[in-house]
Description:
The structure holds two protein chains of two kinds. Chain A is α+β, with helices and mostly antiparallel strands. Chain A contains 15 helices and 15 strands.
Amino acid sequence: MNNKYEVVIGLEVHVELKTATKIFCGCKTTFGGDPNTHVCPICLGLPGVLPVVNEKVVEYGVRTGLAINAKVPNYSKFDRKNYYYPDLTKNFQTSQFDLPICENGYLDIEVDGVVKRIGITRAHMEEDAGKLVHSGKTISSSNSSNVDYNRVGVPLLEIVSEPDIRSSEEAKAYVEALKMILTYIDVSDCKMEEGSIRADANVSIRLIGAKEFGTRTETKNLNSLKALQKAIEYEVERQTEVIEDGGVIEQETRTWDDEQGITLSMRSKADAHDYRYFPEPDLPPIILTDEYIDNIRRLLPELPEARKKRLIEMDSLSVYDANLVIAEKFLADFYDEVRKSIDDPKLIVNYLMGDYYRELVAVGLDFSSSPVSTKDFSELLKLLQEKTISGKIAKEIIPLMVKDGKSPKVIVEEKGLVQISDTGAIEAIIAEVVAANPKAVDDYKNGKGNSIGFLVGQVMKASKGKANPGIVNELLKSVLDK
Amino acid sequence: MGKIKDIHNQLLNKEISAVELIKEYLANLKVSENKLGTYLAITEEKAIADALAIDKKISNGESIGLLAGIPMGIKDNISTKGIITTCGSKILENYKPVYNATVVNKLYHEGGIILGKCNMDEFAMGSSSENSAYKLVRNPWDIDRVPGGSSGGSAATVGAEEVVFSLGSDTGGSIRQPAGFCGVAGMKPTYGRVSRYGLIAYASSLDQIGPIAKNVEDCAIVHDIISGYDKMDSTSANMPSTKSLDNINRDIKGLRIGVPKEYFGGDEKVLKTLKKALAKFEEMGAIVEETSLPHTEYALPAYYIIASAEASSNLARFDGVRYGARDFDQNDVTDMMSVTRDKFFGKEVKKRIMIGTYALSAGYYDAYYLKALKVRTLLKRDFDEAFKKYDVLITPVAPTLPFKIGENIKDSITMYLGDICTVTINLVGIPGIAIPCGFADGLPVGMQILGKPFSEELLFNVAHRFEQNNDFHLRKPEVK
Ligand SMILES: [Zn+2]
């Protein structure tokens, strides 16, 4: 990129809330299902139906507001956003216009070790639309289109940032930070591949030092972090080129074409919709008491930043390790649970992120889909701490735990993997090994110290790996040095 | 013509069977309907099946509801499962709902027997029922005159005694004005008193469903049944249903009646009849005083802006994509939607959609919609003040007698001015009942009794006492 220019980015992130039912009716929000099976007269907008607000949606909206440091006003309301499109069942979307559920928040993000605060203008509740399924590859090459209304009425929260973001990396970091918080407070799964979180990017450029913003474009429906970054980078390059060629940026809505890796003009400002917002007359205003809001605040779980701080300060984890642990709420909770019975934070992290994580990756699982319970994981670490098993045996046990979800104790017993720490038993093996390897014994006595390694190896082999290596070393030395 | 309680007793005493009763009503209705155009669908088969079920219950000694076997008409903008519900519009021609409105379920639960769907102005937009896309409704007192609207079919069918009662909907007078024109009793309940779930919305913040009956007692019985909180309607008031029947006979001595002068600017014949009625109230011991509702003149424009704005959004869903009529000659969905709407919506509906779209557009919102909302607040204050001094307010239902068919249809302003006595009540959200208070030139004159929010029981009481001292409700039109 031409470094004369500064990039200005604002993001609108649409988050699907994980309520069991839709925002205005009792239909399930489950992803998938045959077309038009999660529908009822209300979400189909049949003549005469009325919406009833799902209280969970309001609760999740408030929870999100508090987690992103926003103000939650006592009074907010729904409005109708009017436009015609067949993926809507009423030809308006019930959304929030001038009085959203929360306003004026922020998030801190970290890029290359630098912490930056990104302002959040507002977050508002709204209903999702349906899905058009075209017979051809594109709408223009299709003879017909069908529409699936399963998604209509799935609750969304649109979170609008201030134009505080200055690079595609910051944009990515912002969405990642937001995802982390939303999963921590358990309001969304944030599965980009299922479309439960998607972003629109407002991008403009201006000469470094300029006070005014440049004209921005809005690129819609970025449903992966990669698409988000690439679309921003493409827009910056495109806008730079236009300006460098003496052109002007048109204020317009663009769409990201993932296949071609470019943004395409969708509609110009002149064609922009006049949404004719007005207060939703079928829904009374949302009035939230301070008590209600405080109650949600009280029940807010520990947020990622606070958790990270605790792990560093109380558990003496490195920043690197702490970041690894908090990256996923499931993992962080797993760690905390194991930590209750294992008083060695470093040991926990080493095994979690080491042998255990490697095994999960190898079999195509992740932390949350693994059958290993915190109880079994703790037991494994306890066996290690008590020296009942060696690290080497742990390595053998972990895949079996992941495979069958069996407890490590059971595996150890079934396979006879208990480490031999009985000096008598080990001495007997050593005597055999020493007798069978006179050359190595001589080498050792002639000052070739490294031949002890060979002998240790032979003892371990003879014990099928179960001898405690520390004790073997010690006893062997004393035998040879006699 | 029977009253609900009388029919109920006759059925219980086995003086008549429900099937006999319904067959008799249906036979009469089919003849009468031909002249009056009151129905868009007649549900003969269902009616007879339902009547059979009632008779079976009676012969088995099972208990029956108060409405069991009672023939009723339902306005065609109220959703009835499996029964065509068109809103008087071509865009919903042949549309069969998959669910019942809450009020319909309540009436069915009490045993009410639907004879058909009542004709109306398309999407309840109109004051004469001439905007029905299917056919005219005629006034039973003079078939060359309109029955009023938009619930013209619901009022005329009761007036002509084709059914015992009907349901209408009232957005700016659509129950009261036709009730007045047809000489029957019609209640527009407090906003939120009766569930709107299943009422195909014209203007959501103004619409209310209400009963129409030949006499106040029957009207009260139906109101008591259909009112009450409904969790399916977020705007419904969290209150139990009314118990109007228990209070209907209370003495009204000392009742303070306010007469707002702004409502008395109409036809001399109407005013004279009203004044006679007010004198009757004084005779009955009420205190009648003139009062003022100073912001009345702004109500009509505010009403047409708010109602049209909401309508422009409520009616957006009729686009040919999912149900109802569709124009099949278009190549893409945008054209299909726009041609469908152009072709199958009537003129008045399109006019109001355009007015409403304009009023909500960027740059006009503040000047129109927001200003109309402010007027609404001022009007509410007018009434709050008045109800500090008076228990009820009494006005004419309409400034004129029922007008001739075709007389006003070409002139929207005259037509809209006819709503001057009724629209304010919807903007303010209070209840109002219309009952006949006399006749002029052989045509009924309607009186409107207004009360504070949720004062329906008092209104039924006052209206009933008046009715007991007159015989207007006993007259029957000779349809010719
Ligand atoms: Zn639904």
